[in-house]
Amino acid sequence: MKLSLKEIAELIDGKIFGDENILIENISKIEEAKQGDLTFLYLPAYEKYFLDTKATAILIKPDFIKSRTDITYIEVQNPNTAFFKIIEKYFKPEFNLIGLDSTSFIDSTATIGQNVSLGKNVVVSAGCSIGNNVKIYHNTVLLNDVEIDDDVLIFPNVTIREKCKIGKRVIIHSGTVIGSDGFGYNPDANGVYHKIPQIGNVIIEDDVEIGSNVSVDRASFGSTVIKKGVKIDNLVQVAHNVVIGENTVVVAQSGISGSTKIGKNCILAGQTGIVGHIELADRVIIGAQSGVSKSISKSGQYRGSPVQDYRTALKSEALVRNLPAFIDRIKELEKEVQALKEKAK
Question: Are residues 221 and 182 in contact, defined by beta-carbon separation less than 8 angstroms?
Answer without folding.
Answer: no
